[in-house]
Amino acid sequence: MSNPTSSARKRVLSGMRPTGKLHLGNYMGALHNWVRLQDEYECYFFIADLHALTTDYADPSGIGPNTRDVALDFLAAGLDPEKCTIFIQSKVEPHYQLPLLLGMITPLGWLERVPSYKEMQENVTNKDLTNYGFLGYPVLMASDILLYQADFVPVGQDQQAHVELTREIARRFNQFYKRADSTEILPEPQVLLTPSPKLPGTDGRKMSKSYGNTILLSDPEPEIRAKLKPMVTDPARIRRKDPGNPDKCPVGDLHKIFSSQETIAKVYEGCTTAGIGCIECKSWAADAIVAALAPIQERRTRFEQNPALVSDILADGARRATARAEQTMQEVRSAMGLGSNTVATVSQAVPNV
Ligand code: SF4
After folding, report:
1. Structure pTM?
2. Where are the beta strands (DSSP E) in 212-319?
3. What mean pLDDT is predicted for residues 158-169?
4. Measured between alpha carbons, how far is 268 from 218 in angstroms, rounded to an integer?
5. Which of 184, 165, 181, 51 is nearest to 115 (CA)?
6. 271 lines ligand 1 (CB under 6 A)
7. Whose CA is nearest to atom 5 of ligand 1?
8. 224 within 8 A of 289, measured Cβ to Cβ
């Protein structure tokens, strides 16, 4: 395999928690963009299984199978190990090391004021989230990014705050520590705002696993059609003869993303004049989604049938990621007084103790 780590291109880092099979929302919100970015940047994409432990520590039984599913969906969506580095976070040792060291310099107040910290503690009732790992989650995330000295982190509008905290941690680190030539070790990453079109779930709310309203990338055609049939529509269209408005209908939103211009024109014409029924309109949306997912599902089947290849890709990704991350760790250890000289001094001193 080629070695994308030697590239002089700008570096991009992003990851996803292993929540199980990915859905259209994950695809349009992230993966679809990642596939594009891998042609332009030196990209590292990882499955954040250590992040899953911050909330699922009491029962980690799902993390392994979910990680496998996400890896398959990454490859199925078109991430290409010849163009980017794909790895599992826990298989790259520096991901255990940098959070400890950055934890030394991160003020507690920064972590306690992260909005999702309080929010999740209040709203998640089936898990005890008073653990240190959950509070330290942003340090784990900052480490993920800073380990690769990433230039950009592709995120949607709502995740910009997370990158901002990473920038603050990098800034604080750089205030304390520098290279011998006074240059900064941890560059502040920039947000790479990526387009994420409004993608409604089958109940009209944002597509999300926690709402149970998803269409999975791996759903077979009959399942996709069955999920779309009861999908909510423009509430003004109560009877068949009532005209509707695709701009007020979640099915209309799906058409805008997946259907051809020709079909979209037919939807507008038919909906606003009550010329078509919602059942027919949904079947067109299903046609478009099935067609969009066909190449993804073909690739998934190929990788599913070759688990050894998937293991090799992930092992190779972990090796490349470790090589890159270790470069950063050497600089960080050295700057924080933990350089190789210290090791030599200690080991030489041991016989005399
Ligand atoms: S015809 Fe289509 S766009 Fe119009 S309300 Fe029905 S499902 Fe929505």
Report:
1. 0.91
2. none
3. 88
4. 29
5. 165
6. yes
7. 234
8. yes
